[in-house]
Fold these 4 entries.
Entry 1:
Amino acid sequence: MKVLVVGAGAIGGYFGGRLLEKGEDVTFLVREQRKEKLQQTGLEIRSKNGDLQLTPKLITKNDDSQLFDVILMSTKSYHLEHAIKDIQSFVGPETMILPLLNGIAHVETLVEAFGEERVIGGLCFVETTLSEDGAVVQTSPVNQLVYGERTGETTERIEKLEECFSGTKAEFVKSDNINQDMWHKYLFITAMSGITSLMEMPIGPIRDLESGQRTIQAFLEELVAVMEEIEAPIQQGIAEIQLKRINSMAAEMKSSMQRDVEKRQPTEFEHLQGYLLTQAKEVSIPVPILETIYTKLKLYELKIAMNKQMENA
Ligand SMILES: NC(=O)C1=CN([C@@H]2O[C@H](COP(=O)(O)OP(=O)(O)OC[C@H]3O[C@@H](n4cnc5c(N)ncnc54)[C@H](OP(=O)(O)O)[C@@H]3O)[C@@H](O)[C@H]2O)C=CC1
Ligand SMILES: CC(C)(CO)C(=O)C(=O)O
């Protein structure tokens, strides 16, 4: 299968790299600066599951058109619209678009751009970041990518994808309920990224405090109340399940949003917390913790925008 990974960043670099390690036909769509860097250094992955040094095939949006069987979307949500434009000449009638972004609103964006049929479901659990020297650094061993038809069917194309993913040194899991899995991940990450970015600490010290534990629990319950009201396909008792997940993670675990804040970069707060806040308002569900976290992140974004303006003045 011809695989295109859009963005050789923290997650794209990781999962694309693992597929390349296995010997799959993987190409990365990158922008000029990243291309130059990768041409100089190769794709370096420093991983709890084994380091890799790879020389990947790289293309940019202006390269000759060629069609791919599957396209892994691994940009940040705020780069998605641009990325959609950039991949037009690589998408054919049979191409599957597999999004790995956190959140849920991007599915509709992709469906609008490429049609119901092409877009399958996906998500990942992995803690990776780009180091200052451009390497993909994995900071805890989990490396799971979950994918499946949004209809829940086992189609011929999903079986082909399963074959392509099997035998990789990462956990690729085919799901027959990917819509629900994506909502569950959305719940988990909205809470995890919101709480860690608000408290500016890894998850361990936050959850060890009784007040921290209660805040995480109350936040999950708040988010679930909104999701239930808008009839999201979540299972009963999911707040408790996600609380257990949060409580069993490594104490030093950070969210990618928190790492973005630490690097003074933009965050996906509108895509994660903002989307649910809008939904909450529409169905008149009170969400005081979500509002606090949203406000904190909005002010952070305003501050970095102001700093940038001052730097450029
Ligand atoms: N990091 C993590 O641990 C996890 C992240 N996620 C989710 O995965 C998604 C991606 O996050 P992450 O990998 O951390 O982000 P990164 O910023 O590390 O990587 C995104 C990459 O996308 C590239 N990109 C953006 N636009 C384009 C474009 N038009 N064409 C080609 N490349 C492009 C960027 O390239 P450039 O260098 O040119 O800016 C960048 O390298 C997010 O939704 C995040 O929430 C999910 C699970 C875990
Ligand atoms: C919490 C984590 C690392 C789990 O995959 C994640 O999804 C993120 O921070 O974006």
Entry 2:
Amino acid sequence: MIMRIEDYALIGDMQSGALVGRDGSIDWLCLPRFDSPACFAALLGDEANGHWLIGPASPGRDRPMATRRRYRGDTLILETEWDTPTGTVRLIDFMPPRHTAPDVVRIVEGVAGSVAMNMELRVRFDYGRIVPWARRVDGHLHAVGGPDSVWLSSPVEVVGRGLAHRARFTVSQGHRLPFVLAWHPSHESLPPLPDAFTQLTDTELEWAQWMSRFRYSGRWRDEVARSAITLKALTYDPTGAIVAAPTTSLPEDIGGVRNWDYRYCWLRDATMTLEALLTCGYADEARAWREWLLRTIAGRPQDLQIMYGLAGERRLFEWEADWLAGYEGSQPVRIGNAAVNQLQLDVYGEVMSALHLAAEAGLEPDPHAWAIERKLLDFLESNWQEPDEGLWEVRGPRRQFVHSKVMAWTAFDRAVRLVDELGRRGPVAKWRELRDRIHAEVCEKGFDPERNTFTGAYGSRELDAALLIIPQTGFLPPDDPRVIGTIEAVQRELMRDGFVLRYPTEGGTVDGLPGHEGAFLACSFWLVEALTMIGRRDEAVELFERLLDLRNDVGLYSEEYDPRYKRLVGNFPQAFSHVPMIHAACALSGTIRRGSIVRC
Ligand SMILES: OC[C@H]1O[C@H](O[C@H]2O[C@H](CO)[C@@H](O)[C@H](O)[C@H]2O)[C@H](O)[C@@H](O)[C@@H]1O
């Protein structure tokens, strides 16, 4: 039975996240952190790599798929329901706010009639490789393997057989049966196991409190709220870091090699996430992230990395988990990310832009932050002319990417504005001069007057959908003919089946990789925003609504959409898709952002 990426929903506790399938199986869970080894890795292999199924018993091999699913209101508590010939059953899944150990709580609730249920637990530590020793301790199931151990607590009798633990039980209307799985280091004794029902109330309350700060009043309120909740779920609470996605190696090209590990904090993705959360009223997250940034990049500016681990770790060595077959055979499964060593000049602009926005939104100034910003600008001053790998992290040769230069312009522009508008002190005349120099160079070398479009790299003919952000940065006004020409060129050359590719992948000339990929959702949302900015609102609304239709049944996006198979592809759920969705909704709702105080 193929589980499509859109068949999964996310639960999480702002330290890690699990993917729950429409069949009631948790097929992905890394503990204790997003970037820890998975103890359920069936997503990238099969059941033998670890999963935790709870669903109606069925006579055949195929598991019953849920009749409907939803999140309980504005929370990350998932409700999966099955209508069966004998009754209706609901499975409530969530990860409560973390106190000591991380827990996954699953409550089976009889809604009508009675339903025979099946539970199967296969814990496989170390990304599906280690079969743990299991034993009963104080009435709980305890599984241990290497540094990891988990405890399963439930009033339902669980029996071990064939390297799995199973239970058969019946739930009738009005009955609720809890299962609690807690992780902890194997050298420690049993952590306090929480009461499932108290945890349910607490988790609901926690989300209600978080949502009480939600400040978006435009159209598509529920869709924007779901994206904001998803972004919050991707933040790593103890440090303020934000992961790009909670998964690794969900393929951009099903069956292909474009499989990457996203369980880290990219400066680019995190700053964009931060801007979206600020847009929705969340200043605390911005403050926490700024502190993470200051701690993480402390040191010499030339040592700045484009991504870090959740606590600021710098070594994210990339390796392949060759025992995993990969999602629908997409190999390799990569752990770690070699892009960590790349030069991506755009991140300087993204960091400066986010810090400028945070300052405008009223985040109190931090003298250390400004000192670091100045160091970053010093580095950029000597390096902005270098070729780089660009925001798409190409694995081919470095190039003079136009988007990178536009973002270098953005970095100096925001520095100038921080001095002029917000009273920071610095060599503003020099920054102004650099800003103007970069502007002139981009307009001369990065623009193709024949086709009336900016190009992907200096002197190239290829287009890059990242150029759609030019009007958002303020590099040129929206009504500049070069901006309009670029938007129209992207529409002409990079649209497939109504959505936008980030660049042409034919021949692997841009990214140096074999195979194709789907439409990059962020680029399609950037097109919505760009069309709105140039006054083509109807077209923008039409595209935005088409993009809304790509969300799965619980409102989640992966990184890309493959029009060939009409499926979501790439890591899931992906911050880089939910962020521009929020910005596009703001733009269409006519609320103010981009270079001005954010108020939605
Ligand atoms: O396509 C090749 C690259 O794909 C990944 O990068 C993409 O995801 C990043 C995280 O969301 C995003 O910041 C970047 O802009 C995207 O291109 C992967 O992480 C890279 O290793 C890979 O080269």
Entry 3:
Amino acid sequence: MSGRQAEAGGGRFLSFEGIDGAGKSSHIETVAERWRAQGLEVLCTREPGGTGLAETLRELVLHQPMDALTEALLVFAARRDHLQRQVEPALARGAAVLCDRFTDATFAYQGAGRGFDPAVLAVLERWVQQDAQGRLREPQLTLWFDIDPALAAQRLAAARVPDRFERLDGAFFERVRGGYAERAAAAPQRFVRIDAAQPRDAVAAQVQQALAARGW
Ligand SMILES: Nc1ncnc2c1ncn2[C@@H]1O[C@H](COP(=O)(O)OP(=O)(O)OP(=O)(O)O)[C@@H](O)[C@H]1O
Ligand SMILES: Cc1cn([C@H]2C[C@H](O)[C@@H](COP(=O)(O)O)O2)c(=O)[nH]c1=O
């Protein structure tokens, strides 16, 4: 990861991460509503996804069989389109971007989960996210919703029909969780761990505290 982060031009770039079923999506809209009430322009978006092309790629990644390299290339292709068409213009306008997953998910799922070489992921990351000055676009703050995979699986079982990732076993999600822990340890100034096993209100309070600590 680069120590030289691209300027957000007055905007805010916040990502939400965690294993499937951690409960992050429920909180994105709450933050968006609060910030909109403060007069901010807010873009709520997700990865893979966020543009017509990236949503098409998302459908493939979530539902078609493929190997780890194909998966990594598709999520980075989706990310490139999403950055170019949505995220960068929004940050340049001074908007707040709330993104349900970003590149940490690639290192956690394709890297730690699938066992794909993180050095190759780091090369792709630079190709996709680096600007002309060599600065890397990454979130200013990442809220990592950390939870035991068994509890997340219980929540998901009650919630919806599983996609290709959600069908994977507990061992896969233990590795993904470990991947997030490594990313958090490598970037402690960017990551805040949220104890996602708590009841919804307690999780919301942790989110609010993390934002307040940034003056957000
Ligand atoms: N704190 C909580 N306690 C109990 N249930 C929760 C909590 N937070 C979310 N849930 C429930 O767990 C399920 C998964 O939540 P949600 O879809 O927000 O997770 P997610 O992290 O966005 O998952 P994914 O990444 O797979 O989309 C939903 O049914 C949601 O209502
Ligand atoms: C960005 C990104 C995502 N994934 C996986 C993680 C999830 O299982 C799905 C997205 O579904 P969600 O309902 O939005 O959580 O995609 C991945 O494997 N690699 C990535 O880079």
Entry 4:
Amino acid sequence: MAQPLALEKTQTKPLHKRASWRDYLTLTKPRVVALLLLTALVGMCLASDTWVNGWLMLAALTGIGLMAGSAAAVNHLVDRHIDAKMARTLRRPLPQGSLSPARVMAFAALIGSAGFAMLMAWVNALTAWLTLASLVGYAVVYTMYLKRATPQNIVIGGLAGAAPPLLGWTAVTDNIHAHAILLVMIIFTWTPPHFWALAVHRAKDYAKADVPMLPVTHGIAFTKTCILLYTLLLAIVCLLPYLVGMSGVVYLLGVTLLNCVFLGYAWKLKFAPQRKTAFNMFAFSIWHLMLLFVLLLIDHYLFSDWSALGSVL
Ligand code: HEM
Ligand SMILES: CC(C)=CCC/C(C)=C/CC/C(C)=C/COP(=O)(O)OP(=O)(O)O
């Protein structure tokens, strides 16, 4: 199709296609938010010995989801010129001209403030303010500043995306607990291999858009070394929930398997890469984090069942 190329040359003249609800959904990065919400849900469950109150869970997940979606919409708005230069992001609603910047801003403000109000009214102020800090961390600190300023952008910015398990935890307890920080640390160390694997695959795109991602500023070989080192660090951090007695043997065995596969990808990417290794590692990173949090959940309820059984016998 000729349109995207034509658009690349005339990014300032959007096409003004008709907007649909799908465009608004795209703005919220729904699949990313879905995984963020899974981590928040697990944070909630691990914070309590019994099943979490359904109403509280619904209110907290909706509030956090709306605010994360709002942050993602601001990211689309701020990055619209960069997005128009990269093949992966060219078809987003703003570069395509199906939504205007003013509409996107209004949409982000609407869902962001609705989410904040929900958390304030039905969850607690601590969770509302921490979620707002994550929104600002991603939409303002990462997107407006770090992304354009330093190749450590995603390492520092990763903290905002790593926050949801803590948000889930505080939603239930109104308290910041060291175990919740452990969950944040897992996502924080997972983010560099997750993103840099994709950045290696898309390095030319980022260079073209002049975004100082690590493969652009320091080269592919150095980025692959960093990926391997962060994946090793992640494997160590993932042991902490077991070592501090927060999770049991089901988690330990499962996460060890996941980390062996992830390390296998990182090793292959560094020492024996094929054309699709980087992309496959990125795709696996999403399964890795999702299954890790599912394991934490299964382990939590199995583990507490076993303790309960022990006290009955
Ligand atoms: C600074 C931190 C992060 C950066 C820079 C980053 C970057 C990216 C990028 C560039 C993509 C590709 C999106 C696309 O194809 O349009 C992606 C996909 C994805 N990311 Fe991340 N990510 C980060 C953190 C996270 C976190 C914290 C999560 C969830 C806990 C997450 C979950 C996902 C998922 C599920 C996808 C696949 C989305 C899809 O297929 O539509 N990411 N990420
Ligand atoms: C309130 C709260 C919990 C906020 C969390 C914010 C959030 C949605 C984090 C996800 C991080 C992410 C997808 C970064 C990619 O941005 P990018 O601009 O590098 O990627 P792109 O090029 O695909 O847009």
